[in-house]
Amino acid sequence: MSWLQSSATLRKLLVEQRQAEGLSQAELAGRLGRPQAFISRLESGQRRLDVFEFVDIAEALHLDPVTLFANSIKALHRIR
């Protein structure tokens, strides 16, 4: 699987989790102290997500980062 496919899968999972929490991009960005454009760029793939940002986002969504990462790996395996 290419990096682009893996990145798209992770982005999709993060969007789903944000929506499940009932948050808009602006609301999640507010929890992170970032502008809404930050979330928009991450979700659209215009910006890469680093591991520290991933942890911050998971925690802002009230999720365990390790569990969220494990779920993203499982999602990748389902696609293969």
If you had to describe this structure to a student in words, what would you say it looks like?
The protein has five helices and no strands. By secondary structure, the protein is mainly α. It has one domain: lambda repressor-like DNA-binding domains (434 Repressor (Amino-terminal Domain), Orthogonal Bundle). The protein is globular. The N and C termini lie close together (7 Å). The model has no long low-confidence stretch (mean pLDDT 91). GO terms for molecular function: DNA binding. It comes from Muricoccus nepalensis. This is XRE family transcriptional regulator.
SSE topology sketch:
Layout: H1 3-20, H2 25-32, H3 36-44, H4 51-60, H5 65-79
Helix pairs in contact: 1-5, 2-3
GO molecular function: DNA binding
Protein name: XRE family transcriptional regulator
Pfam families: HTH_31
What is the CATH H-level superfamily?
Answer: lambda repressor-like DNA-binding domains
How many domains is the backbone divided into? 1
User: Can you tell me the overall shape?
Assistant: globular
Which CATH C-level class is it?
Mainly Alpha
Number of beta-strand segments: 0
Assembly classification: single chain
Pfam families: HTH_31
GO molecular function: DNA binding
Domain HTH cro/C1-type: 14-68
Protein name: XRE family transcriptional regulator
Record keyword descriptors for this entry:
75% helix; 80 residues; 434 Repressor (Amino-terminal Domain); Lambda_DNA-bd_dom_sf; mainly alpha
